Amino acid sequence: MQARLKKTVVLVGMMGAGKTAVGKAVAGMLHAPFLDSDAEIEKAANMTIPEIFERDGEPFFRIKERQIISRLLEREKGVLSTGGGAYMAAENREIISKEGVAVWLNADLDLLWHRVRHKDTRPLLRVPDPLGALTRLYNERVPIYAKADLSVVSEPGLSIDEMAKRVIEALK
Ligand code: S3P
């Protein structure tokens, strides 16, 4: 049986915060559909995110991201994991606050770096100084993520299920 959520639970936060893994676990626990904006963008373009950035550039990716997020939010209620930059756009924040509850998965920079440093799937970190790039994004974005309705701290050592339970607790 699927839960009838009144609003979509929208996970926001930096790359490496665990939005996808925790989002899937939250959706499983709530028996609600799991939605993932990055995965939907890749499906629609039939390309990976790095390929989209490389071929069409970040501004094009952001347009697609906006379209997909509004479509997903209008389509059905569930748990939506967004890409790390999605919440930066005022238009996205507007539709998210209308149709959903924004939950910031708040992880500190050390933990984020530990999780992303060996992965090559993030175009914004494919630069000579990826830690510098992550640090800049972190400092720019934290004040915006802090506008989310709820914030859940992601600590090292917490399992995905424990994080998911924290999210569900915060929603009560
Ligand atoms: C981005 C984060 C990525 C993806 C794209 C841009 C960002 O998603 O949307 O590479 O701007 O932080 P994750 O947060 O799932 O890594």
UniProtKB/TrEMBL annotation:
<dbReference type="GO" id="GO:0005829">
    <property type="term" value="C:cytosol"/>
</dbReference>
<dbReference type="GO" id="GO:0000287">
    <property type="term" value="F:magnesium ion binding"/>
</dbReference>
<comment type="pathway">
    <text>Metabolic intermediate biosynthesis; chorismate biosynthesis; chorismate from D-erythrose 4-phosphate and phosphoenolpyruvate: step 5/7.</text>
</comment>
<feature type="binding site">
    <location>
        <position position="141"/>
    </location>
    <ligand>
        <name>substrate</name>
    </ligand>
</feature>
<keyword id="KW-0479">Metal-binding</keyword>
<keyword id="KW-0418">Kinase</keyword>
<keyword id="KW-0808">Transferase</keyword>
<feature type="binding site">
    <location>
        <position position="62"/>
    </location>
    <ligand>
        <name>substrate</name>
    </ligand>
</feature>
<dbReference type="Pfam" id="PF01202">
    <property type="entry name" value="SKI"/>
</dbReference>
<keyword id="KW-0067">ATP-binding</keyword>
<comment type="similarity">
    <text>Belongs to the shikimate kinase family.</text>
</comment>
<keyword id="KW-0963">Cytoplasm</keyword>
<dbReference type="InterPro" id="IPR000623">
    <property type="entry name" value="Shikimate_kinase/TSH1"/>
</dbReference>
<keyword id="KW-0460">Magnesium</keyword>
<dbReference type="GO" id="GO:0004765">
    <property type="term" value="F:shikimate kinase activity"/>
</dbReference>
<dbReference type="GO" id="GO:0008652">
    <property type="term" value="P:amino acid biosynthetic process"/>
</dbReference>
<dbReference type="GO" id="GO:0005524">
    <property type="term" value="F:ATP binding"/>
</dbReference>
<dbReference type="InterPro" id="IPR027417">
    <property type="entry name" value="P-loop_NTPase"/>
</dbReference>
<feature type="binding site">
    <location>
        <position position="84"/>
    </location>
    <ligand>
        <name>substrate</name>
    </ligand>
</feature>
<dbReference type="InterPro" id="IPR031322">
    <property type="entry name" value="Shikimate/glucono_kinase"/>
</dbReference>
<dbReference type="GO" id="GO:0009073">
    <property type="term" value="P:aromatic amino acid family biosynthetic process"/>
</dbReference>
<comment type="subunit">
    <text>Monomer.</text>
</comment>
<feature type="binding site">
    <location>
        <position position="122"/>
    </location>
    <ligand>
        <name>ATP</name>
    </ligand>
</feature>
<keyword id="KW-0547">Nucleotide-binding</keyword>
<comment type="function">
    <text>Catalyzes the specific phosphorylation of the 3-hydroxyl group of shikimic acid using ATP as a cosubstrate.</text>
</comment>
<dbReference type="GO" id="GO:0009423">
    <property type="term" value="P:chorismate biosynthetic process"/>
</dbReference>
<keyword id="KW-0028">Amino-acid biosynthesis</keyword>
<feature type="binding site">
    <location>
        <position position="38"/>
    </location>
    <ligand>
        <name>substrate</name>
    </ligand>
</feature>
<feature type="binding site">
    <location>
        <position position="20"/>
    </location>
    <ligand>
        <name>Mg(2+)</name>
    </ligand>
</feature>
<keyword id="KW-0057">Aromatic amino acid biosynthesis</keyword>
<feature type="binding site">
    <location>
        <begin position="16"/>
        <end position="21"/>
    </location>
    <ligand>
        <name>ATP</name>
    </ligand>
</feature>
<protein>
    <recommendedName>
        <fullName>Shikimate kinase</fullName>
        <ecNumber>2.7.1.71</ecNumber>
    </recommendedName>
</protein>
